[in-house]
Amino acid sequence: MAISVLDVRGTFVPPHVSVPARAVVAASDAPRRLPLTVASAGLIGVLEAVGLMSLALTHLDGLFSAPTRPAGWIVAAGLIMLAGWIVLSAGSGAALIDAAGRTLFLGVAYGELVLVALFLVGATALAISVPGDLPVPALGLMALAVPVGKLLLANARSSRSWVAAGPRTRVRRADPVQAHRLLATCTLGLIGLSLAAVAVLAPVPTSGPNAPASVYSQH
Q: Tens digit of pLDDT for each residue in 99-128?
């Protein structure tokens, strides 16, 4: 005789309460492929930082040696802004490739749009000389191509999916020195013996044309 409803359900009829099985999704160990849009956007950021660095190294000498150079605080502020721009451009591109986020990348691109717009307004209102005697609209379009391209690549669907998936899993690898301690010790000992042999068998001459020059002179 069944003493509970659960016993009756288990003896005469099949259970009416169906418990759905929880779907288990197996984690894929296959490495993710870097989308072309993400690679292109990150490469643009890094190349932009390299171009800004080369431009600064090329023109800073002429700026400092000019007879009518600006005040010191203006030069210092410009150098700080340029250094920050270089670091943010390269760092945001690397962060996008690493799937750490694209907020910084988009912020740098929007800031560059504002900077180019201010430059165009200043070049038009103050008649600033542009390099290469290019028309101001043509130079503005060339300058706008970089931030607009960065925004288009970073806002692509593949780029958003790449960042939403998060950074790739880092595979921990054993330290080669710990794994091959005996080989590392033998290599270090062999290098030390080789240096000692060179010092003993080929001593430095103290006289003659090959003798090292002395920094002391007798008066």
A: 888 899 999 999 999 988 888 887 777 766
**Quick one: how far is CA 116 from the chain centroid?**
24
How many H helices and E strands in the chain? 8, 0
DSSP label of 44: H
Q: In whole angstroms, give the CA distance from residue 216 to residue 61.
A: 37
Q: What is the pTM of this model?
A: 0.59
Q: Which two tokens stand for residue 174?
A: 């054993």
**Contact indicator for 143, 116 with CB cutoff of 8 Å:** yes
Query: What's the rounded mean pLDDT across residues 152-180?
Result: 81
- Closest C-alpha to 35, from 80, 82, 102: 102
The CA angle 150-153-158, to the nearest 5 degrees, is: 150
Q: Using one digit for the tens of pLDDT, what is the confidence trace for 13-62?
A: 555 545 444 444 444 445 578 899 999 999 999 999 998 888 888 877 76
Rounded CA gap, 169 and 30, in Å? Answer: 11
CB 157, CB 24: distance < 8 Å: no
Query: Which residue's structure tokens are 């430059």?
Result: 119
Largest CA distance in the chain: 123
